[in-house]
Structures
1.
Amino acid sequence: MKNAFILLTSRIIKLVANLLKLLCYPFHALFPGKRFTLPEAAPPLLATRKPTDIPRILWQTNFTGEVTLPVYLNYLFNRLMAPHHEYRFMVTEAREHFIREHYSTDILEHYSWLQIGAAQADFWRLLVLQKYGGVYLDIDAHLVWPMDGIVRPGMQELYITNRRGEISNYFIVSRPDNPHLADLIKAVRDNIDENLIRGVYDLTGPGVFNRILKARDVDTVSYRYACNQGSFTNEHFQYIDKAEGKWTRQQKSVEVVKRPTH
């Protein structure tokens, strides 16, 4: 019964979100230069004393913090669905600063060889969750159920599965110092070092998760009951200020990994 109610809620959210997205086209036609600022940090909307093994931090990243209305609405909706979570956001430069401050020069070096922002974001999300823990959400991802109903007491980690039952990486829940994240970080680092994989998906993204975690005993949840993508926003609104566009286009003309020649 609960799952049926979540599915119904998810469909209603998707319907409303897509309607808002359509309304954003005339808004940005009238105000083409209008952007909204995502905060680098924001406290929880509501305080709570309930204990949890997963730190109540919601992490996101993007190439810019100045975003279109659909992306900002997506952000606001997630804040409402996770009112007990503080918010942390990093742009490209902040990601590198975080890694420089908290990880070895070897990890920083391998990260710096990544030439596509999405690949950098893939690596960073593992590193920031391993350090601090919390919940990572892609900039176009939105919850379909309140966070406190998704992350159960005693849970150490949670990974999302797509329609095919494969693990994706646009929603990750983890405690700090997670051995599974350590394995994923090592796998991404090795992929970058070997540079035999040409696509972002298998080099740093979901392909790594499915190769490393598929035989492990990890908690997973279908996207239908936790988190969806692309309802509030789309590629047009996400990359309106990025001429090279989405990583799927960018990787056709840019090497994902570029090691120094010296």
2.
Amino acid sequence: MSIIEKEIVTKDLITKSNLPASDYVINPYVGCPHACKYCYARFMKRFTGHTEEWGNFIDIKRCDKTISVKKLYQKSVFISSVTDCYNPFEAKYQVTRNVLKQLKKADCLITISTKSDLILRDIDILTELKNLVVAISINTLDNDFQSDMDNASSITQRITALKELHKQGIYTVLFMSPIFPYITDLKKIIEATAAFVCEYWFENLNLRGNYKQDIFQYVSEKYPQYLSGYKDIYNNKNMEYWKQLSADIDSYCAQKNIKYTNYFYHSLLVAEKKQSNAKDNQRATI
């Protein structure tokens, strides 16, 4: 099925962030043709009015307003929170590349998250950014599992991208997200990539909305031995698996002297930030 392309006009590419570790987000596109089966960002359709299936549309943002580097001074910016800024259409439209050009003079922390080796195209700009983190998502070394889950770059391409970015002196993160219970072998992934990864981020698989049943169906067909475990975690809300895995990550990373951040309780962190922002706004009006 062909992907529906549409150019849209936006007043500002920068949006205030509710993410726990960033002040602002930049999403150069609406929608994402990587079409990850577990993607939480499909909730965007409630606000954008798209009737197409997630992954079958892409809106290309056009903005006449120049990014204010003064506004971003000493702040943190996350690219991208609800799309992949290096989705295949970036090769054609270059919205992300234009954003990065504008950010070259910004004194802020810039974090880019992607599943695409297209990021290597912009090495010339990336190496000029003052404070940059690049996170590449990998949650398996199994090519069949990866191709079942998304239309992004292959695992080999992502690992190659991490190696090259690290070689260029860029701070590299392997974002192990989402971790699929019993399927993602985090230790094997770390062993295969530790030589060129500065930090690991871990995020658990959250199942909500329509795609929960899709994932259940997939597990029942490809990994039937784990289906009862998935039902216990996601139907019975049993958190013991994640608590134990969290403890295992702490122990393993301490033993191997690995720098990491655990985002298993991401929703709690987001709620805490919203509460903190509300208090700040309340104080500002007094």
3.
Amino acid sequence: MHHISITPFSANGITYTPSAKPIVVICMDGSADEYLDTTLAHDRMPNLKKMILQGYRGMVRGALPSFTNVNNASIVTGVSPAVHGICGNFFYDAEKDEEVMMNASAYLRAETLLAAAADAGRKVAVITAKEKLRDILSHQLTGIAFSAEKAAQVNLETHGIENVETLTRQKTPAIYSADASLFVLKAGVSLLKQGVADFLYLSLTDYMQHTYAPDTEESLAFYEAQDAEFGKMLQLGAIIGATADHGMNAKVKADGSPNVLFIETMLTEKFGKGFRVICPITDPYVKHHGALGSYVVVHMDDISRIDEVKNWLTLQPGITEVYDKKTGCHILEQPADRSGDLFVLSGRDVVVGKTAAHHDLNALDGTLRSHGGRYEEMVPMVISHPLNTIYKLKAQGDPRNFDIFDFTVNGTQ
């Protein structure tokens, strides 16, 4: 085993004091607690069971909206969206009058603990399934950062590593597959085994959770395959922390058809023109969710009517929360300058969208399963090693999924 730095480092007001063990934090994208419960009940995850028995398992609160970019940014900074500025996969840039993807590090307003760890001497590697996350996660990082999606295009200058397919003995996977996530885990094991990295962030993709319910054989086999890689990491002496960016729920009616409220259409029919609805879940992966989630923001031309519109929306079936900008930014921990005039959240089995014309439901690979709202906010957290006294007490409070590095690094000594 190569020398592992134990030099403390700090990011965003949090000091991390690592031990001389490899650290691996995994974002199990879309892993609602039901997925772990079901797979454990079928005895398909023996290594996860071992981690839970010797370490810790609990529920933690994620960041809202419960989307991928938002929560991954929170996990690698240790702070909320109000601080780091990433408030969706997609937003309306009022200054430029453009609706744009929020997948570039230029939008990040906080340092990452990954960059700080690398500066302190840790060999840091970021491996993400989705290319859309790589730039944000690798912000100012001197280390390795690549995606499974673009593994064949990795080069030393851009990604801090080369010949990834040869190194990992894996071909670049299809992004709409179980292999996209398994590639990330297997690549992490390879980098650990070869001493190339000792501080890893592995971010998976939720295609499988969007496509399969927890009790399907496809889902059980997927989690069983993940578990095999957890076991290899444990054998290599790693301390593993695992959480999720969000949960996942079926968003369908009793007959199985998508349960969608098209908010811009509803508002236009009721109040006339002057509304722009933004779906922050929007990203290039249309087979996942058709850009439909349980959270949207509304921009209004005439904000003098905001109370009238807010009160009407609040009364609509399927809508669970509506906030104006000031209240919503406080409760939902959002950056005010990147938010709309109203925040709209929907029920467990409901998604909210723009208009029917803006969402291609035919692109889905199966039924509509999605996330984004309050009902996908609570996610599991598993730590492979016992928590110390201080962090046992913290776990009894209101831990967040973006405390995962703090718990894994500081809570296990």
4.
Amino acid sequence: MRILITAAGSHGDVAPYTGLGVRLSGTGHEVALATHRSYASMVEQCGLEYRPLPGDPRADGAAAQGKGGLIRKAKAFVGELGRGITEVADPQVDVLLLSTTTAPLGWHVAEAVGAASVGVYLQPVEPTGEFAPVVGGARSLGRWGNRAAGRVALGVVDRIHRDAVRELRRRLGLPPLSGQAMRRRLEREQWPVLHGFSAAVVGRPVDWRPGLEVVGNWWPAGPEALPREVEEFLAAGTAPVFIGFGSMGSGQGERLSRIAVEALRSAGLRGVLQSGWAGLAADSDDVLTVGSIGHAALFPRMAAVVHHAGAGTAAAGLRAGVPSVPVPVTADQPFWAGRLAAIGVAVEPIPFGELTAERLAGAIRQAVAQPSYRKRAAASARRMAKEDGAGSVVKLVADLARRAGS
């Protein structure tokens, strides 16, 4: 089968699909991953075919002025993204695997090229009574309120995509169809969506329709070994605390570095800072700064991990069996931060805008000193180890191949 995976956004929105692509390729499929050019080398180093999608996630992540500016920015982004997906999804593609971000456009492209499609989501966006929409706040509104808010959230997505979908279908020679109408069609057909996160964090809601499944994470592909300087630092003393904010905090490197160092010293602990988009930097005998480095190899060696609670980083900390100190910034991060705290593997989240050295030091001390956090994180890690998220996608693709053959 010729498979095209489409993913857009920050590093955490894209990297898990490299592992999924490698797993599919290993079972004999021809796999291409379409994403932004800044991730081309990451994709190609995994042995996957790279196809370009427009957009610079770092530039696109810059804040626009006001709500209206954000909406205009989002509409422009999805317009470009729709054109990009059209260009990379040629008629030779058998299956389109669509991320949360690319699905509202990819549905129409799959229809045009006659390809099967499957949702491979990193976030639970389908409305449910069990929790509030992933983007927009982590506080439950009650079962009725959660479902209503979830429908409103999908309506906002459809409005943002409305012009792009209209233009996309015109260009593809398809009859007019709104995003909302497409969602209803897919619901009737029980369009499959496999969610790449662990049931240890979010179980499958009982009120979801058939076809929506929680299967477990697919993990980024790439080297697992740590650089020599990191190994030497780890060997030189007690387990340090990781602090990193991923694609968040751009332009705030000096402030965040100062807070991190002061908090570590107040807590009496060593630290590893990951520079990220914020540009954290502070090297001393008890603090090491690193660049891009695999969390799978680093996190198990940490006493705790301080992070922005992006889906990928939150999962990596849990997989390592270490306590978390979540500092959520935006989008789905408050949701994941709340889930980590709810299952007892993380301290109470510190909103990014309220972060101080004093609050961070107290949270780090709590996470490291109280054994219950590590005990629960280790139990969750054992549960996650039994899940095979990528294997579930491989099985579904095999089912699609059998149906196509018959």
